[in-house]
């Protein structure tokens, strides 16, 4: 019995330190609906004021204390300014958010889902948004890539929360976002070429976790797998995408947008 209790305790530690990039939809709201709606509208207005036809958006879906060092946001997607058809058939302009979400009941499988800012922030633990606005030319390229379905071509439904950005064996939401960005930069959806370019130019986030936690996570948690890594565990994060674009002069604006409407530096 003592060994079983120890195993359960270790598994709890593993899950708290590994599930940082979960991409679940439809989580229970942690804030009043009016607060979430108000914040979502503030984010939209802020991005629009910066001239964003599209931007990369991040949210915090777990308590900060549970996030490993170097991880600020737990889910990443791409917001595109679009004509949105409402339930009554009328049309409004706003940002549609293109996500990679884990499938309900199948955490190791993902699908591509379009939702909207209120949906995106519905289950967050903190009303804070990460915002990366690429240069106008890259914005246009990313919009064109999504419009032509290239985001689907670079999607791998085999999901792992700590997927490596350097191969296409597994994928999470942030790596998928990086794939779309690179497909837009290099004008190709050839995954072998995209991963070679990522190895050459993109520096991922090292995940420092106890090997036992990683082993337990990979055994007991369907959405934790390490088989796509060789040696050190490195994954894609919202911040590493921002740094990658900044280093290559592909950023127009980056910020952390707060609940009170203030903004601060992302990096």
Descriptive account of the structure:
The chain has 267 residues and is an alpha+beta fold. The protein has one domain (14-264). Helices cover 37% and strands 24% of the residues. It has nine helices and nine strands. It has helices at 2-18, 33-49, 117-120, 136-147, 150-153, 173-186, 191-201, 211-220, 238-247, and strands at residues 54-60, 75-85, 91-103, 106-115, 126-134, 205-206, 234-235, 251-257, 263-264. The strands form two sheets. It has a seven-stranded antiparallel sheet with strand order 4-3-2-1-5-8-9, with helices on both faces. A two-stranded antiparallel ribbon has the order 6-7. A hairpin with a 2-residue loop joins strand 3 (91-103) and strand 4.
Q: What Rg, in angstroms, do the CA atoms define?
A: 18 Å
- Number of beta strands: 9
Q: How many helical stretches?
A: 9
Q: Measure the end-to-end span.
A: 47 Å
Overall shape: globular
Strand content bin: 15-25%
- Give the integer mean of the pLDDT values: 86
């Amino acid at each position: 019995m003592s060994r079983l209790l120890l195993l359960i305790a270790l598994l709890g530690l593993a899950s708290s330190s590994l599930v940082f990039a979960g991409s679940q939809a439809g989580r229970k709201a942690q804030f009043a609906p009016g607060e979430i709606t108000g914040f979502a509208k503030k984010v939209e207005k802020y991005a629009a004021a910066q001239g964003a036809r599209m931007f990369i958006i991040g949210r915090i879906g777990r308590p900060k204390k549970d996030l490993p060092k170097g991880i600020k946001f737990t889910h990443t997607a791409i917001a595109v300014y679009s004509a949105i058809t409402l339930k009554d058939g009328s049309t409004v302009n706003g940002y549609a958010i293109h996500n990679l979400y884990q499938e309900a009941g199948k955490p190791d499988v993902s699908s591509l889902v379009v939702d909207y800012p209120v949906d995106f922030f519905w289950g967050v633990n903190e009303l804070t948004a990460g915002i990366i606005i690429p240069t106008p030319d890259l914005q246009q390229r990313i919009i064109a890539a999504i419009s032509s379905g290239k985001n689907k071509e670079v999607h791998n439904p085999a999901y792992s929360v700590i997927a490596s950005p350097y191969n296409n064996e597994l994928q999470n939401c942030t790596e998928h976002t990086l794939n779309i960005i690179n497909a837009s930069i290099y004008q190709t959806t050839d995954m072998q070429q995209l991963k070679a370019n990522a190895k050459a130019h993109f520096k991922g986030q090292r995940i420092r976790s106890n090997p036992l936690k990683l082993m337990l996570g990979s055994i007991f948690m369907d959405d934790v797998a390490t088989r796509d890594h060789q040696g050190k565990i490195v994954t894609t994060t919202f911040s590493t995408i921002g740094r990658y674009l900044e280093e290559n002069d592909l950023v127009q604006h980056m910020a952390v947008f707060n609940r009170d409407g203030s903004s601060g530096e992302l990096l």
